[in-house]
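PT: before anyone asks, these are the final sequences, not the draft ones from last week. 736 residues across everything. Please model them as a single complex and drop the result in this thread when it's through.
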Amino acid sequence: MAKDLLILTTGGTFDKRYPEGQWVTEFTFPPGQESAVTEILRRARMAPEAFACEWLFAEDSTKITDAQRDIIANRCASATQRRIVVTHGTDTMTRRIDPETGKVAATPNTAATIAARKLDKTVVLTGAAQPAVLRDSDTDFNLGLAIGAALMAPPGVYIAMNGLVAPWDAVVKTVVGSFRKFEA
Amino acid sequence: MAKDLLILTTGGTFDKRYPEGQWVTEFTFPPGQESAVTEILRRARMAPEAFACEWLFAEDSTKITDAQRDIIANRCASATQRRIVVTHGTDTMTRRIDPETGKVAATPNTAATIAARKLDKTVVLTGAAQPAVLRDSDTDFNLGLAIGAALMAPPGVYIAMNGLVAPWDAVVKTVVGSFRKFEA
Amino acid sequence: MAKDLLILTTGGTFDKRYPEGQWVTEFTFPPGQESAVTEILRRARMAPEAFACEWLFAEDSTKITDAQRDIIANRCASATQRRIVVTHGTDTMTRRIDPETGKVAATPNTAATIAARKLDKTVVLTGAAQPAVLRDSDTDFNLGLAIGAALMAPPGVYIAMNGLVAPWDAVVKTVVGSFRKFEA
Amino acid sequence: MAKDLLILTTGGTFDKRYPEGQWVTEFTFPPGQESAVTEILRRARMAPEAFACEWLFAEDSTKITDAQRDIIANRCASATQRRIVVTHGTDTMTRRIDPETGKVAATPNTAATIAARKLDKTVVLTGAAQPAVLRDSDTDFNLGLAIGAALMAPPGVYIAMNGLVAPWDAVVKTVVGSFRKFEA
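LR: through. Structure below.
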């Protein structure tokens, strides 16, 4: 069952690190095509033959472009696997509440882009409130949650965050940063 | 969806700690009815209204009795929730390979006890290779994996370990301690 | 002996955290007058009667002003304790090599400000390459290093970083961010 | 200054790990001559040329023999370095209070063995309340504390534990496991 699993990584808070040097004020992504997912799956003692993991790019989700969203959706479409987990920044993973208006923001989001392809696959997006390198991170739990859901859910595009798993269009990112059910 | 979730804790490696004092050689469970599950779900930023969590007892799984297995199965049966996660020691969670014979050991196991009740519920058992208090623990991932599966899988009794989710009787604990698919 | 110890906290990488919410790109300091030093000394199981700890302010060391440097030096001067540890951002803790010129930068630094007071006290400055909230942080070690030195060294102003303890004017921060001996 | 530092590792709680497999109830030391000290000094970003580190053996301090204590003292005597840190189990690092009598126990201890050599060197013993592999460990702090003291203290044999540094015969391990000043 698990051999059918593909994990795609695209950066986001999940993979942010604290750079060393002088006069540092912003986060960075690690050099090389390396995601924290590798280390988490080692900690999880997951059998290497049970999954494939691919680094697509590392981008802050506030800066992800339409072209990058297409890269993700295209890879989901071309994958031989029918169960896919995508790690992604949380600001444009799915819809969010606009802090100014209190309503759903018009920002483009990756879940919608994937859903538009109407793939007959189970795709679960997850991310992080705190980077994997932090002691108090939610990355290990979230990746587990997404994989558990991806292995068991019927085809569709889902969000797995805050211990919640639901279809992408039934969830929003709130102003304080957590994901909640959303009755449109 | 998530409001339907009950988490039961029963000890095992998941909840073991390192005692302080003098002449210490064995692990202990924390004083009080407290499981590491609470801390992990806080780290996961899971909404409190999304689940109920109950501490049943804290026992090493090599010492769990038939009476204790019945406590677990009874609570699964009486629960109003239809989606249940059980944290449990790994030696008697499901069947294991006997290191002496290389065949499935005859030791009683909790998954079998729950399955015998033929409940119309989704019950997922999980545990840990390394206690939650360790830096390199698999508890956060495993609890996420079990919750993701419990929220999405049809009724049945499942094991969620090593990034694998499968019906309890299709999995064994190997001699080196990991869980693998098992064709009976 | 240890009752003579005062710990002053002033922010820096040591106390930086990763903020949650939307569109986050910079680090923050925790709300309230709270330093990670408290948590580290709890982990260290240090007896509360052995030290006093004071939060002076929380500032990125690239932004510390002359007025803030005076606050630190004044508190060292007024303290009844003769052994003092100061947690501080690393960019202006002592002198640094200018990445442009490869020579010692002219930036003001806090060690020089304290040393100018010619106090008959042992003052040890320390900081962090990675914030205390990170798994791979050097804060626990560095705070221990600084306290061990502060309890044992004769009066003077010292830097304790990278496992090195030396008089402040015999150390520089290098371009890659580590502290090394410097023959002026 | 720091080039004069030798670190000797001898096991103890500091280096204990949680074994995986089946029917596990006791702690183990890692296979190979490897101490957690290596990983901690990497986290501390300590310059490799600043110290030498030697693994002598890995033993629970309740089982250390007179012969093993002599190995430690002999190595301190033969070392070219004049500043030495020893990681050691806490039960026989120095004197302890006997839980039965409430008085100092007659158990042999390593600090006394080293002190009897009357070396003209600074030797600092440290250990751990929680193994280095635990999230809440005191090992990083304690190793820093011992190194800071070893680099600065005059010749003598010292204990560095619980944020305290003092001559070995002025400290005892209490019944609850912490180290405190002791007026003989």
